[in-house]
Amino acid sequence: MTSIATAAAPAAPRSNALWAALGRNRLSWIGLGLLLAIVLMAIFAPWLAPHDPLKQNIVSRLEPPSFEFWLGTDSYGRDVLSRLIYGSRVSLMVGFVAILIAMTIGSSLGVLAGYLGGVFDRLVMGLVDVLLSFPTLVLGLMIAAMLGASLENLIIAIAITEIAPFVRVARAPTIALKNRDFIEAGRALGYSPLRLMGVHIVPNMISDVIVLGSLWMASAIRTEASLSFIGLGVPPPTATWGSMIREGFEHILDAWWLTVFPSLAILLTVLALNLLGDALRDAIDPKLRSE
């Protein structure tokens, strides 16, 4: 009984290590600050945007940055800053929801495959190998093209492309944990496999999955921008960073602000997520933590 009571104990020190790593790594605070600023910008978009992001004003089309339009206007006379602010909502929502879906499905399959083994494990890993054989963007493009351009289909397409890494990350520690003494003690006490996986295995590997999620959310945002750039993202006139870059590509020589500012927004968001993810990775990796 004592072994079972301490089953989730390894998870507690790891959570303390996460906070300790954030405290030691100054770059992680830069990433956290950037990400928090972008999230707040998305939440308070209606109050921060100086103009209606969908309002067209042909008289003011392709105006460079000025006091009235801080980041200029696009080919339809719409304020670039307002569209940039509202575009953060789409990018963050797509990235977060897609990774949450991929994390849930992938981790569940990984834990089941690692714990059950046998034929089920071989089938799951075979599917993972098939998904990993395609580049992320190519696979997302294929799925988005089959489903059609919409916000929901974009999330589904990106989520499917990100499932495979979570399966592998969840499967490996499950295989290592399923033969530990506290799991054997749980089996001896008659605990169901579902309880052993959900209560005693998942808490000891969830931090690995969360770290991977923070890193792959950056990948999801890049994929969303790429698919929007080629016209397979959220349909216009909804503002997204990828579609803003695509719209400005035709005027890249005479209206540089149309592509530069959305590109900088993607760069800062991905940088923030990578800095935060690297700090979390350092915290859970004992080799990196000891250096």
TrEMBL record:
Residues 88-277 form the ABC transmembrane type-1 domain. It is a multi-pass membrane protein. The chain crosses the membrane at residues 27-49, 92-117, 196-218, 255-277. PROSITE patterns: ABC_TM1. Keywords: Cell membrane, Membrane, Transmembrane, Transmembrane helix, Transport. It is found in: Cell membrane. SUPFAM superfamilies: MetI-like. GO terms for biological process: transmembrane transport. One of its GO terms (cellular component) is plasma membrane. Belongs to the binding-protein-dependent transport system permease family. This is Peptide/nickel transport system permease protein. It comes from Paralcaligenes ureilyticus.
